[in-house]
Amino acid sequence: MKIIKFEDLPIWKLSLKITKKVYDLASKKEFSKDFKLRDQIHGAIISVSSNIVEGFEKNNNNEFIRFLKIAKGSTGEVRNQLYIALTVCYITQIEFNEINLELEDLAGQIGGLLVYLETKRNNKQFLKK
Question: Is the alpha carbon torsion for 40, 19, 77, 80 positive or negative?
Fold first, then answer.
């Protein structure tokens, strides 16, 4: 599969799918009233896809690596906030498990791309033409 634009990136597509789920969870009654946690998790999940896109659009291997690391870190931040939501009973264990697994998968895919890109550091344009 040839990657021409950020919309072609499987990790970007998956990040949007997870973003929808996070927003749905954060709109639940008690969760939605906790403005600080709700806004924090919204910001963190938005950071994932935004950093994937920003790094890709830099059209530079080193910059993409840097922004992917930020995106991967943001997946961890979202996971932590979900643990908090679970701990204070805003979400169920089942809801937590489902989205946590998806976030772990996304982080793993981002990590795999990072490994690949780090081996190709000398390429100026690694995905685009």
Answer: positive
